[in-house]
Amino acid sequence: MSPASRSAKAATPSPSWAFSESFVPDDDTMRLARAASRQLALTPASQGVTSALTFFARLINARAVVEIGTGAGVSGLALLRGMASDGILTSIDLETEHQVAARQIFAAEGVPPRRARLIAGSALNVLPKLSDGAYDMVVVDGDPLEFVEYVDQSQRLLRSGGLLVLHHALWKGLLAEESNEDDETLIIREALQAVHDMEDFTATLLPVGDGLLVAVKA
Predict the structure, then answer these.
(1) Tens digit of pLDDT for each residue in 104-113?
(2) ∠ at Cα 70 (99, 124), nearest 5°?
(3) Which one of the listed residues 98, 167, 168, 196 is annotated catalytic?
(4) How many other C-beta atoms lie within 10 A of the C-beta of residue 190?
(5) Which of 47, 140, 143, 154 is the most exposed place for a label (fewest CB within 10 A)?
(6) Is 196 a residue of the active site?
(7) Which of 156, 149, 139 lies closest to 62 in space, CA to CA?
(8) In this predicted model, what pLDDT tens digit does every residue of 20-72 receive, in sequence order?
(9) CA torsion, points 51, 53, 55, 60, in degrees to nearest 10?
(10) pTM of the model
């Protein structure tokens, strides 16, 4: 079987996968956020990913979360729904246009402005300015070519018991193809290996959406 055929096969969802992805349905505000994403030519996190983000944030009663990649607010909305009522989401994105859209989505949800700290800029410039061990959760959904640096920063930012969640961990079904040496694939493989090699992280890889690597810090 050719690499192209393997990719096509991997990209075909099974009925069970499709069922699990749609198990927690979107509501009106989430549909609005997804529409805003499409208008900005962005690909939002899947229903399975957003429901997982809400679940993880609720599981650890997250009060301080860092999100790398605001987009139009799809993931941020999911996180805020799971966080403690006084929790603060710090979300970083290069594009101010994206964050304007996200702010509108959060307002439609009734989220007080103080609970969403949106920072426009490069994540690699912003993350080093954030406090060590001050965050319950770090969600990575930024530039795939910077995933290794994001992982390194996440190890510093997370408290003991905090969660690292890395989206696109299966990168369009291409990560499992050993012969694929695209830049994004290689860097994401390196990022996954980096998490695996860190003694203070216990990780698992979930086939949700485009793949979620989830790791808890000791």
Answers:
(1) 999 999 999 9
(2) 110
(3) 167
(4) 12
(5) 143
(6) no
(7) 139
(8) 999 999 999 999 999 999 999 999 999 999 999 999 999 999 999 999 999 99
(9) -170
(10) 0.93
User: pLDDT tens-digit profile of 141-162?
Assistant: 999 999 999 999 999 999 999 9
Structure tokens, 92: 């970083």
- Alpha-carbon gap, residue 31 to 213, rounded angstroms: 25
Which amino acid is it at 114? R
For the chain, the C-alpha Rg in angstroms (whole number) is 17
Close Cβ partners of 18 (under 8 Å, ≥ 6 residues apart): none
Whether 141 contacts 111, CB under 8 Å: no
- Print burial letters for 57-68: b (CB count within 10 Å at least 16), e (below 16): beebebebbbbb
Q: Contacts from 24-33 at CB under 8 Å and sequence distance 24+?
A: 24/48, 24/50, 24/51, 24/54, 26/50, 29/77, 29/105, 29/108, 29/109, 30/74, 30/77, 30/78, 32/105, 32/108, 33/72, 33/73, 33/74, 33/77, 33/102, 33/105
Task: In whole angstroms, give the CA distance from residue 9 to residue 30.
Answer: 30
